[in-house]
Input
Amino acid sequence: MIFELPKLPFENNALEPIISARTIDFHYGKHHRAYVNNLNKLIAGTEFENFTLEEIIKKANGGTFNNGAQIWNHTFYWESITPDFTKPSDALIEQISKNFSSFEAFKEKFINAATTLFGSGWVWLVKKQDGKLDIIQESNAGNPLRNGLIPLLTCDVWEHAYYLDYQNRRPDYANSFFEIINWKAVEKRI
Output
């Protein structure tokens, strides 16, 4: 299977001023594209050449896992954000509040997780096997599928996701992220 760079669900400048077109050009156009190109080279002639990304995430290690997971993570991230401001539905707010005591407590915990993750990685809102929601941090290319969790939302906290716009102010980026979350996508995933 040859993997291709998926099309962005919005124009490069659509998230400004939260995320600049320049950041999208680098993040999507260079980083995401590099993961696709690298994975295609790594899997050629191996047991993984006919695997889906999900199968690669669950079964591969090393560079094959890293590049496969980063393709999946980035695609999921792009689908998690939107230039069209959406509010979470009352039903989604209720479900989140059941798990985190309130929507504001969830937001605070998510932003704290994004801010405190040491180094590069991802912060995820996930659904566990028992149906409860949780917030987890994954370093580097970490992906919750590997642990049997259902991803609902992610925030990319690799520096390439925010450094051109926010420099070392990751907390500002994490706060601003809440202005572009695609809550309709989150609700469909639940």
